[in-house]
């Protein structure tokens, strides 16, 4: 009887990662590549509507940037800071992206309060 329970519990333990990995839900932190993609998509979205941060709506030149314009600036504990460079405006937008994929801040200085990202990531 105990052997049967042991075998059943081992089988359930082995299968549990597949049961949790269902479509439409991402349980893992975003990768560096995904953070860069999120930053570029967010920058483009900020050309259509004002950002929720203390920024003005970005002009059309930000929408037309290539993927190479976005790069990791900082890989912090619980977040990434991605820089998006716009040579047409001679400006760089910095976006802080939490490991769950949420945007935690955006500015042109690259300065963020570090404690906000680590507390928001939990």
Rg, rounded, reads 20 Å
Global morphology: globular
What is the string of helix and strand elements? HHEEEEH
Q: Quick check: average pLDDT? A: 81
Helical content, roughly? 25-40%
Overall description:
With 122 residues, the chain is α+β, with helices and mostly antiparallel strands. Strand 1 (70-76) and strand 2 (79-86) form a beta hairpin. The model is unreliable at 10-25 and 118-122 (pLDDT under 50). The protein has helices at residues 2-20, 32-45, 114-121; strands at 70-76, 79-86, 91-98, 103-107. It has three helices and four strands. The chain has one domain. Strands 1-2-3-4 form a four-stranded antiparallel β-sheet, sandwiched between helices. The longest helix has 19 residues, at 2-20.
Brief overview:
This protein is α+β, with helices and mostly antiparallel strands. The protein has three helices and four strands, in the order ααββββα.
Q: What order do the helices and strands come in, and which of them pair?
A:
Blueprint: H1 2-20, H2 32-45, E1 70-76, E2 79-86, E3 91-98, E4 103-107, H3 114-121
Antiparallel strand pairs: 1-2, 2-3, 3-4
Question: Which features characterize this protein?
Answer:
122 residues; alpha+beta; four-stranded antiparallel sheet; 3 helices; 4 strands; 23% strand
């Amino acid at each position: 009887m105990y052997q049967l329970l042991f075998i059943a519990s081992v089988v359930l333990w082995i299968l549990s990662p597949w049961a949790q990995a269902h479509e439409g839900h991402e349980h893992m932190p975003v990768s560096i590549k995904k953070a860069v993609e999120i930053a570029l998509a967010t920058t483009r979205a900020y050309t259509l509507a004002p950002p929720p941060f203390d920024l003005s709506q970005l002009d059309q030149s930000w929408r037309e940037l290539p993927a190479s314009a976005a790069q990791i600036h900082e890989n912090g504990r619980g977040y990434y800071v991605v820089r998006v460079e716009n040579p047409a405006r001679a400006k760089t937008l910095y976006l802080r992206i939490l490991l769950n994929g949420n945007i935690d801040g955006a500015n042109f200085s690259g300065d963020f309060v570090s404690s906000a990202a680590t507390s928001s990531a939990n």
